Amino acid sequence: MGLRAPLIAWQRQIRFFGHEHGDKFSMLVFDNRGVGASDKPLMRYSTSEMALDALELIDHLGWIEPKQLHVVGVSMGGMIAQELAFRFHDRIASLVLQSTAATIKSEVPFFENIKRRAALIKPKTLEERLQAARDNLFGQRYLLAPDEMGVFPTNGDRFNAEEIWKTENVIQPPFLGFMSQLVAAGWHSCSPERLRYIADNIDFVLVAYGLQDKMIEPHHFKYLVEKLGPRVRVREFPDAGHVISTEHVREYNQMVKELVEEAAAATRNE
């Protein structure tokens, strides 16, 4: 998952793949180093090291067969997934890169970019944090729409409630853990040659993104698609922000399900 996000951020996918379709899928979600229940070492993090964290966990589970894995990475998690796919492509049958970048190259004016980065670490009240998260993570159409479960007035209100629950029930990342993840994401770089190598060695690669994303500007997605090459699949969500997996949860889950099933079938037929 992305910067500072705990594994529970996958809750809507856990329900779909792990419970509603648990007879067909085995799903692994985990906290990246620096957040949640994982260790938070005081050192510089890198996406390549975090990819090794993931592989060690996967190996521990015994998922070691060729083309056995279906990897989904979001934001910083997508950067980690790129490193995993480049080094261990023989283990991966399908790869979903959501709301992520090969490297961060902002088109925002310099001082505005500095202002945005500083806002990430500025101390905030609870309401300020909720407001900033809502604005940065989601499209306005989603936030203002009625809560689909009918419990809260809007999706924005549901998000507030979920975040407040997390502050009380999920281990909060220490400041240095967050900063270490920020450094890992900021310094991530996957070259055009490495991206093409990934696409040449994994037959089922999908890039998904929202055009209203404020966390990673959309030109990053277009660059990623271009450098992965013509075989990559693309799903664009015009009204979505950074968290497509929440904003368009049904379409997103079905999209991933279909890709995984197709890749698994192709692997069985080899």
UniProtKB/TrEMBL annotation:
<protein>
    <recommendedName>
        <fullName>AB hydrolase-1 domain-containing protein</fullName>
    </recommendedName>
</protein>
<feature type="domain" description="AB hydrolase-1">
    <location>
        <begin position="24"/>
        <end position="248"/>
    </location>
</feature>
<dbReference type="InterPro" id="IPR000073">
    <property type="entry name" value="AB_hydrolase_1"/>
</dbReference>
<dbReference type="Pfam" id="PF00561">
    <property type="entry name" value="Abhydrolase_1"/>
</dbReference>
<dbReference type="InterPro" id="IPR029058">
    <property type="entry name" value="AB_hydrolase_fold"/>
</dbReference>
<dbReference type="InterPro" id="IPR050471">
    <property type="entry name" value="AB_hydrolase"/>
</dbReference>
